[in-house]
Amino acid sequence: MRRTLSVAVLGGLLAVSALAGCSKDGGTEGGGGDDGKIVLGFSQVGAESGWRTANTESIKASAKAAGIELQFSDAQGKQENQIADIRGFITQKVDVIAFSPVVTSGWDAVLKDAKDAGIPVILTDRAVDSTDTSLYESFIGSDFKVEGQKAGEWLAKEYAGKTGDVNIVELQGTTGSAPAIDRQTGFADAIKSNPNLKIVKTQTGDFKRADGKTVMETFLQSVPKIDVLYAHNDDMGLGAIEAIKAAGKKPGTDIKIITVDAVKDGMTALAAGEINYIVECSPLLGDQLMETVKAVKAGKPVEKRILTKEGTFTQEEAKAALPTRKY
Amino acid sequence: MTTILKHRLFWPSLILVVMLGVNAFTSQQFVTIQDGHLFGTLIDILRGSAPLILVALGMTLVIATGGIDLSVGSVMAISGAVACLLISDLGNQNSIGSVLLIIGVAILVSLALGLWNGALVAIVGIQPIIATLILMVAGRGVAQLITDGQIINVRSDPYSTLASGFFLTMPVAFLIAAGAVALTVLLTRKTALGLLLESVGGSPTASRLAGIGARRITVMVYVVLGGFAGLAGLIASADIKSADSISAGNLIELDAILAVVIGGTALIGGRFSIIGTVLGAIIIQTLRVTVVAVGIPPEANLLFKSVVVVALCLSQSPDFRAKVFGRFKSRPAVEKVGVPA
Prior knowledge:
The complex is a heterodimer of chains A (327) and B (341). With 327 residues, chain A is an alpha/beta fold. Chain A has two domains: 35-141 and 283-309, Rossmann fold; 144-281, Response regulator (Rossmann fold, 3-Layer(aba) Sandwich), CATH 3.40.50.2300. Chain A is 46% helix and 18% strand. Chain A is built from eleven helices and twelve strands. Chain A has helices at 2-30, 50-66, 79-92, 108-116, 144-158, 178-191, 209-222, 234-246, 264-271, 286-297, 315-321; strands at 39-44, 69-74, 96-99, 121-124, 138-141, 166-172, 197-204, 228-231, 256-261, 277-280, 305-307, 312-314. In chain A, strands 2-1-3-4-5-11 form a six-stranded parallel sheet, with helices on both faces. Chain A has a six-stranded mixed sheet with strand order 7-6-8-9-10-12, sandwiched between helices. In chain B, the strands form three sheets. Chain B has a two-stranded antiparallel ribbon with strand order 1-2. Chain B is mainly alpha-helical and 341 residues long. The mean pLDDT of chain B is 89. Chain B has a single domain, classed as Orthogonal Bundle (ABC transporter involved in vitamin B12 uptake, BtuC).
């Protein structure tokens, strides 16, 4: 009895979803029948930092301004959630899928599904390691390697001509994520020419404040003399600042701090002299994303790699920029 | 000597001592006095383990009654979110009275969430793992609703004292946890409450027939755990001066259950050890710190932790010890020791 019931329920659900699919197809193919709005399915990594929430807000605001219907989902930092979200978008037959991959690998299968369904995919902020680049239309975002290089170049300049070892500790982002890998290699490349600059400890802080704080506490205990902290994002840097203060040291003075991102909390700390240098990684890519979505939908060719516009901030520049900062 | 060796907490204690020894070796200051309070790696470990001690303590009581609670991480997130949202709305965030009131509100909310779990288990009669799974999933959503999916920052000195402050040279967070442990030990070991808990865990039906209010006791342990988880959530959010509804207390239920198991409490209910649980929680926190101090590469973190945990669990099995070490002795291989862990 129970079995027949569940079969009946399942059958009913299938029928309903098939109907929904039909009506949707009719709408898009018919053209004028619907209001002609482009539907964009976007899967966000999560809300793990201030940067990410600014990124989310930019995408939501730009979609509204551009008249694009946004189906937003949050993967909460898990790849399996994100794959499920993307499969959901394919089933819903959205016009364009965009997502910010949680990790770099393991996307081929789901991207092939999207391609087979004829839905173009745009990557934002983070890349994937798929060898088949036809699986996505474009990748909009920062070059994390360049960000790491900018951070390293500033440090190399700061210590140019000085002798004596400089002990650097590094707080990495989520293990295996593109920004963590590239910011690490970019930074290492830039300081390679100066043998005095030494990375003595490196550990993951998972891009989170709490982890940044606990890892820095241990760094402070296990490294005799820390001169520089390089954190892969502002939030871990902010957590580390708490640990440095608790250890009776002065962040920004006793330990020089370089971070990446330039979110408001980070910029406030920079202006207050607790951070020394921030490499911007702008989350405000919403407008560029919507332009690309429209171009892709209209069948126009788009650049395979679109860079977001961004700069760097010293303490003085932060003081000047802070009042007009959007995020 | 052999009686110490046979004590079920001997092996976990030994592993803790070894790890602390490694930390004493790698760290600049293991324990010292700085700015008028204790400072150093040992103090960092005690302070950092406070939220896990609180959650694992409540979890011990729930497991003693034969239950389990998966929703503790979500309760932590909700409690931190409620507190930070209310504090960020304050005109003067440094007003001690208002902050205390808000802490009270957050704990009341957590107790109510515990009551929800307890009611589902004891009154509606849903299996604990399912009943608390509801709040585990939905609770994180509620926390995100409260914070609107954002990280809420607070700049309140009284609030951050909860995590970073010191009282009588000891970290406030650890004192809170120690207070909770002392109170629980007192109530369960100096009154009949502990016996009642164990009897409910052993057999709820037999307890009820013997005149014990099994249902009331079951609801009570979930409410207590809700309160402890709420307190842990406040400490965790005060530590970073912000409410992060996604990562606060994420997966802490597994660490808490692990701490309970390391401490020798049987997952089927009945027998429980509070001191064992506290030991387990401190071991887990020490392991986290050791991974960084020794410089294990980030990619190998999880592997290293699992190897230690497997070694820990195997070391507690008398059968395993007899099989491995028994070969070197002339005694018969298998030896029955008290109660297997």
